[in-house]
Amino acid sequence: MKQQANLIRAGQVIEHEGNRWTVLKQQIITPGKGGAFIQVEMRNLRTGNKTNERWRTADTVERLMTDNKDFTYSYADGDNIVLLDDETFEQTIVPLALLGEAAPFLQDNMKVECDLVEGDVVAVHLPATVILEVVEADPVVKGQTASSSYKPAKLSNGVKTDVPPFIEAGERIVVRTEDATYVERARK
């Protein structure tokens, strides 16, 4: 389906120069002189390579329609992950690169939502939050009691984040998978 370039949004799948690309970021730029254009960062679905492309806002691009389907993460196999179809119990092998920076948050038996184009997985979406254990947390600095003061901590998946001063090593917390930010203490 053809659409104007200024309607491109992150997460969409487009066809460009004979390849399928998933849009990672888009930005409309209006220079002081001349017409506005859109700058798009995208990843090739076959090779995993990233590129930047610019279009005038009036240009058209071919957008591919995606279907959504739920899968369960089974295991990692080198640079790929194996997903299990919840309905047919068939295994699907997907490049780990499709997860991008959210890959460390993938957990055993996690339910994920995938976008498919003609039966091929083109994007994997994790749940909005996950529960992880804090394995390292800096001690609280005396006198640092302002509500906006956070301290660095390392999570059980190796990701570093900032947590409130009352969080100690060994506690379980809820973390946002999109940007690795602290949400709240996990309920027991």
Descriptive account of the structure:
By secondary structure, the protein is mainly beta. The chain folds into three domains: 2-64, SH3 type barrels (Roll); 67-125, Nucleic acid-binding proteins (OB fold (Dihydrolipoamide Acetyltransferase, E2P), Beta Barrel), CATH 2.40.50.140; 129-185, OB fold (Dihydrolipoamide Acetyltransferase, E2P), CATH 2.40.50. The protein has no helices and 16 strands. The strands form three sheets. The protein has a six-stranded antiparallel beta sheet with strand order 1-6-2-3-4-5, with no helix packed on it. A hairpin with a 5-residue loop joins strand 15 and strand 16. It is flat, with a radius of gyration of 20 Å. 20% of the residues are buried.
Task: Write the SSE topology.
Layout: E1 2-4, E2 13-16, E3 19-29, E4 37-44, E5 50-56, E6 60-64, E7 67-77, E8 80-85, E9 91-95, E10 111-117, E11 120-125, E12 129-137, E13 151-155, E14 160-163, E15 172-176, E16 182-185
Antiparallel strand pairs: 1-6, 2-3, 2-6, 3-4, 4-5, 7-8, 7-10, 8-9, 10-11, 12-13, 12-15, 13-14, 15-16
Number of helices: 0
Structural class: mainly beta
Q: Might you state the CATH topology name of the largest domain?
A: SH3 type barrels
Helix content: under 10%
Counting DSSP E segments of at least 2 residues, the number of strands comes to 16
Q: Major beta sheet, specifics?
A: 6 strands, antiparallel
How much strand content do the residues show?
over 45%
General shape: flat
Spatial strand order of the main sheet: 1-6-2-3-4-5
Radius of gyration, taken over Cα atoms and rounded to an integer in Å: 20 Å
Task: Output the CATH class name of the largest domain.
Answer: Mainly Beta
The domain tally reads 3
* Series of H and E elements: EEEEEEEEEEEEEEEE
